[in-house]
Amino acid sequence: MAKIKAAVIFGGTSREHDLSLASAAEVIQNIPRDKYEVICIGITRKGRWLYFPGDPADIAAGTWDQDPDCTSALISPDPLHRGIITIENGETSVKKIDVVFPILMGKRGGDGTIQGLLDLSGIPYVGSGVLASASCMDKSHTHMVMDDYDIKTAKWQLITQREINQLDERCAEIAEKLGFPMVVKPANSGSNAGTSFAENAQQLISAVKLAFSSDNKVVVEKYVKARKLEAAVYGYDSPVCSAVGEIKDPNRPYDPTNFNVSTGDDLIVPADIPKDIEKQIQSTAIKAFKALGCKGMARVDLFLTEDGEILLNKIGTMPGLRKNSVFPKLMEELGFSHDELIDVLIEQAVDNADRTY
Prior knowledge:
It comes from Ruminococcus flavefaciens. By secondary structure, the protein is an alpha+beta fold. The protein contains 11 helices and 17 strands.
């Protein structure tokens, strides 16, 4: 039986470039080689696409693009090619692809852009499509969808760049509606860059200006004193939720600007919560996954407040995929080893391609 040709795309121009490299290196090392032929495509920080035939260790080290055997490459949007076009010494060739695993976090990757290109190409890919990826990346859209589906989130307000000339007045309105303290975030960002904490009017104005340096929309949320919980959801028609974990590090003081970031080292699975609360959290995670149109996989961040209220924080459609990252650790609790998880994610994408194309 012929092996499935799986292309892994990594790197990218976003701030999450290094996170992508770390995840991609471990994914490539753990793809079952008896089943898959792996083709590696890297995107440099400046946006250049390269076919990389070298050692995954060079990806982890960040030196992959210095390999002399790298050649220019691109995914053809023409479904006739259904693959990757490489360019070497002016000569082009096509490498046919059966499925793509896009390991790209942040803007121009995890926000629906690469998914749109792959939809044009007709090549199946792992993870959510254009709309779900974009809606989960844009925190204002996530809030809007959650509001429509009666899924609770922190109280929030949106400021757009068109309002920047009335920033003082707009911030005063938000302060009256939400009250301090607040967490201020760029609407579109895969990391905590541009995120800050505001405890008074002047800090709020400064925080909004900082967030505008990363995006043209800013989300302001009422600060929530709560436990930070995590769930992994995977699947298509009948998505399944993992056990609930908790981000908890007694050796590191709480910092709201780092509240959305975890390498997995500070994840406790399962979380020490009552069984009925865990079921409610799992139900909320699946409901949000479906509401946003996600498929394949997602890391769902939630809050559990002191009075027992469950709030959705955000959904990551392209979570970190190192063995020690949050999503794989939660999936391990369901019985998936790292290589089994990677195999299942690729297999799902192939099996569900017919309904997309």
